[in-house]
Each structure stands twice: as C-alpha cells, then as structure tokens.
Amino acid sequence: MLMPEIMTGHGSEYGGVKAAGRSVRARLRDGIAASDPGLLRLTAGLRTVGAIALTLAVLSFLDVDVTHLVAGAMAAMVATFAIREKQRGQQAVTLALGLPVALASVSLGALLSSRVVAGDLFFVALIFFAVYGRRFGDRGTALGLIGFQVYFLSLFVGATVSGLPELYGAIVVAFLSSALVRFVLVPETPGQILERLREAFRARLAQLVSAQLDLLDAGPDEVEKALEDVRSGTARLNETAMMIQGRLEDGTSDEAAARLVQRRIADAEIAAERLGLLLLTARSAERATTLTLHLPGAPVPAGGHLPVRDEASATLRRDLDALRMLVLRPVNGESGTALSHVRNRLLGYRDEENLPPASPAVQDVFRGIGEASRAVLGLRIALDGPQDDSDDSPATARSREELDAEDAAIDAGEDDTDDEEQTGLRRPTTRAAVQVAVGSSLAIVGGEFLSSHRWYWAVLTCWIVFLNTASTGEILVKGYRRLLGTVFGVVAGIVLAALVGQHTWTAFALVLLCVFAMFYTAPLSYTLMSFFVTAALGVLYTLLHTYSASVLLLRVAETALGAACGIVAAAFVLPVRTDRRTNELLVTVLDRLADVTEGAVDQLSGGPPVDLLDQARDLDQALADLRAATQPLTHPVTPLRARRDTARYVVALLETCAYHARSLAATAELLPTHPSIAADPRLRRAGRRIQHNIGALAAHVADERAAVEIETGPSIASLLEPDIPGTPRYGRVTDRVLRHLQRLDESVAGLARPLGMPVPARRR
C-alpha cells in the first residue's frame, strides 16, 4: 500500500516508488513517443529501407547487374517517399498512377540522352510542370516528384534505348515492392497514427511537468537552462497538439469524437502552459509575464530565487511529481486506491480545499495543479473511455460532472471559410514553377561547363532548394544548409568508399543505413539529411565503378552552383522578398488573433456560440507558418543582429497573444455547461480596445502609410467597473478572463514599437 507515503509529505519517496514501478520498456516507449510523435519519422525510414531491401532481394534473385540494382533501389525510394496522402485508398491510386509516369519519364530520358538540346529543353519543361503540379494537392505533388526523380535516375545510371526493358523491369519491381511494404509489411492507418500521436502528447506533457519541476528546484546557476527546457517543452507540446489537429478528421470516424479529443488536448495544453507561468512567478520576486516563456534568451524575472524548503514547497514538489504520474499512468494498469486519493487531493485544489499555508503565488501554483489535474482527467476520459469513479471525492465528482456536461454539449461544426485563391503568376505554384525553370536552365548551362556528364547535380540542387520554400531568404538558408551537408557528406563518402571497396552487398547495407538516417533526420535537420544523401552517393558511385575523390568534389561544386542558380532565380524572377513574405504572414496571424479574440469575448459576453477551437488552431497554424518564414531573419549566421532580435521579439509577443487568446477561447467554450461561468455583457466593452489595436497593427503592417493609431487608456479591469453603485464587481472566473484580457491588451500594444508604429502616451 502506498497510502502512508501519499498522505505524508514524502513526495520523493512516492515518486521513487512509482518511478521504480514503471518498467524500463514503458519509459523507453514514452521516450521514443515523445522524440518522434506518431513514429512518423521511424515509419518513413522503415518503409523506405524495406522497399529498397525487398527490391534488391527480388532483383538479385533475377540475377540483374549492379546498374539495374542501383536503378531499382532509387526507384523504390522515390515510389515510397513521394506518396503523401493520409488515406490508404488514395495512396494506392497515386502509386498506381505513378508507375506509368515513371516508365514514361525513364523512356524519354533514354530517348533524349543523345540529343543534348532537346533533352535539356524537355528537362526544364518537366521541372516546370512537376512544380506546377503542386497546385493539385498531394497527388499532383507526388506525380511531379516521381516524374522528375525518375528522369534524374535515367541520367544517373546512363539509361539507353536498348537497355529500357531491363530498366522497366527494375522500376516495376520497385513499385510493387513499395506497395507491398506500404500496405502489408509496414501498414499504417490514420487511426493508428492518431493513437500514437495521442501517446506522444501524453509523453510530452509529462516531460513538460518534469521540466517545470526542475525549474522550481533549479539553483542560481541552473535556472537559465531549466527555463529554456520549459520553453522547449511548451513548444514541443504545442507542436504535437497541432499534429493531432491535422489528423483528427482522417483518424476518427465520428466528428463529435474528434471535437472531444480536440477540446481535451487544448485544455491540457493551456493548463500546462499556465502552470509553467505560475511556477515561474512562484520562484520570482515579482509576477512573471508570459513573454518570459516564449522569448528565447529572456532571463528569469528580477529577484529569481529558490523557494524556501518549507512544508508547502515540499508538498508542491510532491504534487508536481504526482501530476506527472497521473499523466503517465498506464491505461489498464493497476491503480488501486493510492492514485485515486492523489487525484482527489489534486482536484480538491480547484475548490480551494486543503490549500497549504503559503504565499499567494505558491497557492496559485496549487490551484494551477488542480486545473491541470482536471485537464488530465478529461484527457484520459476522452482518449481511454470512462474511468473507475468508485473512490471519487466530492471535488472529483464535480469535475466529472463538468466534463460530462461539456462532452454532451459538444457539437461538430463546419468550417465554411474559403480562402481567396490567387490567379496567374501571383499563384505560388505558378511563380515557383517559373522560378525553378529559370534557375534550372541556368544550372544546366553552368553545370555543362563544370562537367558534361554530371551537370544534373546542379539541376537537382536547384530543384530541391525550391521545395517547401516561399521566399528568397528561405531559399538562401536551405541552399546554405544543403551545401554544408554536402561538404561533410563528401568526406564521409570518401571514407565509406575506401572501406567498402568492391563488396557489393556491404555497400548496399551501408546505403540502406544512410537512407534510413536520411529519412529519420529529415524533419529535424536539412543539413544532416544532405550529409547522409551525399554519403550514400559516394557508396553508389563505388558500385557503379565511377567513384573517385574528384567525382565527389565535383558534386560539391555542382551543389554550390545549383544553390546559387536557385538563389539568383528567386531574387530576380518574380521575387518574393523575405520582408514581404513575413509581412503577409504577420497580417494573417493578426487576422486570426482578431477572430479568436472577438469570438471569445462575444461569447463570454452572451453572444451566440462560434467554433472557437478551430479558430484557435488556425491561429496556431498561422503562427507556425510565420515562425518558419522568419528563420532566415533569426538564423545564427545573419549579420543583421538588431533585425534578428526584433523578429524574435515579435514572434514571442505573438506567441504570448496566442496563449491568452487560446485561454479565452477555452473559457468561452465552457460557458454553456460550466455552473460557475456566466456571461458578463461588460466584457464586450473591455474587448473593443483590443480589437481596435489588432486591426490597427494589421493595417499598419499591410501599408505603413495607413492612418491608424494604437489606443491606450486605463486597465482592462477598470473598464468593467459597475455602472450602478453596489452592483457586484465580478466573480472568480470573470477575474481570470480579465487577467487574460489585460495581458492580451498589453502584448498587443507592445507589438506597436517593434513594428514601427507610433504609440501615443497612455491616457488615464
């Protein structure tokens, strides 16, 4: 029995017993789930390696030569990674359509191999239509990718008309092997992916609680690192929540169930982020701002210190450890009465039960633990079904009743928002197709001067730097990373080629390892991916008896040329400057922020319900797009330090705004069902200034000459003073809403100065 340890203050003993009780296998599983949400990277690597290995096995049984083994391996890799659809039926259709596209592409590559001018012109046209095909969604992207890569394959292996039958056979085997691995050997359904993403969310939530506990205990020399771990954990939790959002529609059969999971994920994310802020405040001499959790390098608020190790702080540490264990508790594990008592005690803090005597800041942390425990309870019910309620305390029973009422009120809504589609050369796919066609033409001409036999490496690099990029700055950073990875990959390729010699199957084993590492690291580091690609090519050149150090050095030169051609094309052909791109995305973020804030305030004021959860996730997605677009501005090698700091500050302020807007939306969603939340019409008055200021910022970013101005004035709380003397001011929940509105008001006004917008003096 764990009851004596739980009811006493020996939190470390409780945590030690529970930690020891969790198997090494369970801890390893949680670690993998947290590091690779949904096991998406692992699955991509295994599928690709499996398809290549199966292709090589079949072709070796058919006794084909090394050249066709290489061609089959490359075709299997393309057939596997090109497919992007989430539904298995759609994947099968795209794979079936990809085979004739691949056969036609390799045929044209062989036919045009002796016709230099015609071949080059066709290659440029193929590149244009391959990029233009992205406008038709995942299938258009996949077919364009297959067409381009297989044409490149024909150049790499030196395809000829007489050798086409053998190449056809290798490609057919590759596509069939890819299908067998995808649908039989390494099957994956949207529901399975969603289930693994849910487990990843739990694991990352537990890691964030651990980081928050470390922040509480960190000494003066450790606090900066502990704070950075909390920032990183908060960002990783948000990333996983967004990944779940993107899979809900395909991974669930019922819209109401999808919205229930969406709601519980949002609750847990907001509660965990709020708990981090309360902990930061508890160990500081002054109230911390949410910006501290979002701005990289921001110091701990003035007066940061280690809390006194009294009874309250010992209980706080114990309860944080207990919260983490509630998150990680196995679904079908034996809980007994011990964890029920822990859960009951933590949920009791929501109703001010048994709050230890401590400072107001520390008591706020206990309340935050209670709210986080409620979110964890709701998350477990949504993901695992009804839980045993035989040992519930009155506080836990009330929490369950609230959750049941919310579940019953959830009604799936439809998003009727239609984005205005750009046409002509303004359409991103058309512009990118023109740019990459021009850049590839330059790469062909320049590549021919470097090597008449390996010029296509420059074209490949030019093509790749345009993938998933939308501005000149993004292309510049991607080209730099590819060149850096290629340089180090050449060194590795030389070493591997020397070790392998002419041992064919040893070489293929090394290629498979490099391919797996390439796909596993691709979402983490483009430089690492380029490194493994180049290392694998060094081994493939050895197999084709074309290896030499000069060939690999030529690859570096061709890569540098291709990156340069891509940058030149992006800078001078229908350019999209980084400033323009970030400004467009910034306006989008502000518009989404205005939508969430307006909808939440209106609903909290008594207005009709709207789909706030989807709006909040749209805000998160817009913010993620902006964060990615500002990478060229915040890259460590950028010489514009002031501009880098400004970009980081603006993004951090927007993340702070998004947190408070999400919190307002989550509270507004509770309005129809929560017994302690009632609409307050006075909130509409408090939200008007925020709405005006968000709109003014968006207008200023869109046009710096716009005649707009930030409004300043008294605090948000003062705007809700009762109109009639003696009227009650506001309740506890309204007080929390006001705090979020106040912080949102301050953060929105704080955006004015870094964005170059004049700020009038505050009026009293």
From TrEMBL:
Key word Cell membrane present: yes
Spans through the membrane: 39-60, 92-110, 116-133, 140-161, 167-186, 432-450, 456-476, 483-501, 531-553, 559-576
Keyword flag NAD: no
Record keywords, A-Z: Cell membrane, Membrane, Transmembrane, Transmembrane helix
Acidic residues compositional bias, start-end: 403-422
Localization in the cell: Cell membrane
Region spans: Disordered: 383-427
Domain of life according to the entry: Bacteria
Membrane topology value: Multi-pass membrane protein
All copies of domain Integral membrane bound transporter, residue ranges: 443-568
Family: Belongs to the YccS/YhfK family.
Protein name from the UniProt record: FUSC family protein
Organism: Streptomyces plumbiresistens
